[in-house]
Write a structure and sequence with these properties.
6 helices, 171 residues, flat, 0% strand, mainly alpha
């Protein structure tokens, strides 16, 4: 009589463990989340000098505390504020960088294309893996063939005659 109870308890424990939330390793898209590049840090709020003479609200307009947050972010990252103006010519110091990065063309919808391709890839990989008896790392399974093995890449570079002085230790 003890053996069937033990089997029942183990089966129940395994099925409850399979229902755990695996967080970032979950391949199912959580929905239309925020775009991480559209979130801009703002300066702290400051009280106005006189509450009687407040400006009229301008929906979609500039913020009194942060009138131009994108320009401030560009300057903080080492760029120039003039680079935000589309009519400003590219400075000579950045010409080589722009030429190298755009030599194969730059599609305007790169982010949407890569998002769609990744969603199709994950859907293809997750087709037969929806039901699992035990929780597994499906992220690692799906992207296993896409991962770069540092030792293999190092050895391939050495075979091509490329010096690798800071090679990682063997795993």
């Amino acid at each position: 009589m003890r053996m069937p109870r033990a089997i029942l308890v183990l089966t129940l424990a395994a099925s409850v463990a399979g229902c755990s939330d695996i967080g970032l390793r979950n391949l199912e898209p959580p929905g239309q989340g925020p775009d991480e590049f559209s979130v801009l840090p703002v300066k702290p709020l400051t009280p106005p000098k006189d509450y009687a003479f407040l400006p009229a609200p301008t929906p979609g307009g500039a913020n009194l505390t942060d009138p131009n947050p994108k320009a401030e972010a560009v300057v903080a990252l080492g760029g120039s504020e003039a680079a935000l103006n589309p009519n400003t010519p590219i400075p000579a110091s950045d010409g080589a960088l722009v030429t190298a990065s755009s030599r194969y063309g730059v599609p305007a919808n790169t982010r949407q294309v890569t998002t769609e391709e990744d969603a199709a890839f994950r859907k293809r990989k997750a087709r037969w893996t929806r039901l699992r008896l035990f929780p597994v790392d499906r992220y690692a399974q799906a992207y296993d063939r896409e991962a770069i093995n540092a030792n293999n890449a190092n050895e391939a570079a050495r075979q091509l005659g490329i010096e690798t002085p800071s090679a990682p230790p063997l795993e």
